[in-house]
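Regression test case RT-17, inverse folding.

Input:
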């Protein structure tokens, strides 16, 4: 059984209400993006996290780049509530605006300098009985072409898109 939390140096991620738990891939992805943004001196720009889950990625990136401002969207209500709690407990409520909703209908009224996402990616694998886990792990609710289209609509022309896929 997975731990109900994941401890980092400066914050704790609770994950007992999230279908998608913290993974090594997610941690490495967050550390890599944080370093890339820091080295490119892109700390004071506007960011979007599509599929915020536990809130891990914005918290990791803000830890290294405190001037970052994030919007983060999460479709799963329990994960949204847990991410909100994680972000608040980490003292980053002023840096991350969390939205409970679907990226397909998300209309922020602005474009972003950077978009990050660790989306559901299983396509044809066997699904389990847990609907929330299926949504978090399988791409039926967010197909890659749809994600790429939305990113094209929400990203500034000179913006950057960071995507974690197992291919």
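Golden output:
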């Amino acid at each position: 059984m997975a731990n109900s939390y994941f401890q980092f140096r400066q914050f704790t991620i609770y994950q007992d209400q999230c279908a998608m738990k913290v993974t090594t891939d997610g941690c490495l992805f967050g550390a890599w993006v944080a370093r890339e943004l820091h080295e490119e001196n892109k700390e004071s720009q506007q960011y979007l996290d599509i599929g915020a889950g536990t809130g891990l990625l914005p918290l990791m990136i803000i830890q290294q780049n405190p001037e970052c401002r994030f919007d983060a969207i999460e479709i799963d209500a329990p994960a949204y509530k847990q991410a909100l709690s994680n972000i608040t407990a980490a003292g980053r409520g002023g840096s991350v605006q969390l939205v409970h909703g679907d990226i397909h209908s998300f209309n922020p009224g602005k474009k972003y300098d950077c978009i990050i996402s660790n989306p559901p990616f299983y396509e044809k694998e066997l699904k389990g009985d847990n609907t929330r886990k299926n949504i978090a792990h399988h791409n039926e609710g967010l197909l890659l072409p749809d994600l790429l289209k939305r990113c094209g609509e929400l990203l500034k022309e000179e913006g950057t898109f960071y995507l974690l896929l197992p291919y």
